[in-house]
Amino acid sequence: MFDKRHRITLLFNANKAYDRQVVEGVGEYLQASQSEWDIFIEEDFRARIDNIKEWLGDGVIADYDDDDIAQLLADVDVPIVGVGGSYHLAENYPAVSLHRHR
Fold first, then answer.
1. Dihedral sign from CA coordinates of 49, 51, 54, 55
2. Residue 79 to residue 41: CA distance in whole angstroms
3. CATH H superfamily, domain 6-87
4. In 3-state terms, what secondary structure has residue 15?
5. Which residue range or ranges hold the Xylose operon regulatory protein N-terminal domain (predicted)?
6. N or C of the chain: less Cβ packing under 10 Å?
7. Across the 102 residues of the chain, what is the mean pLDDT of every consecutive 10-residue run?
């Protein structure tokens, strides 16, 4: 499927049931698709925040319900999939409206 192995960082809180389910789902996807991903899961990534840009790899899948994670990744230059949305900012989404014509 991919030309090279991709290094993907997962930033989730293992103490939260939903986060564990997301990580499990990523694992199931990797098995089913046989994708060439190297997964990096840091037990306490907040202890290594100073050099986060050095170890993020090729992309990130992260818990965006954790406002600290969203802020931490705000200026990172790798593709990010943010899971959740409790802390979304409305100004980051384009306006969509419905025009009814008769």
1. negative
2. 17
3. Response regulator (3.40.50.2300)
4. coil
5. 7-96
6. C
7. 77 88 93 89 69 77 85 85 73 69 64
| Partners of 7 in beta bridges | 38
What does the block give as tokens for 10? 């997962």
φ, ψ (nearest 5 deg) of residue 6: -110, 135
**pTM attached to this predicted model:** 0.74
Q: How many CB atoms are located within 10 Å of the residue 84 CB?
A: 17
- Tokens for 78? 């790798």
HSE (CB half, 13 Å, CA atoms) of 28?
6
CA 50 to chain centre: 19
- Residue whose entry in the numeric block shows the structure tokens 């818990």: 63
Alpha helices in 1-102 (DSSP H): 17-33, 52-55, 67-72
56 burial type by CB count under 10 A (0-12 exposed, 13-18 middle, 19+ buried): buried
State how far Cα 4 lies from the chain centre.
20
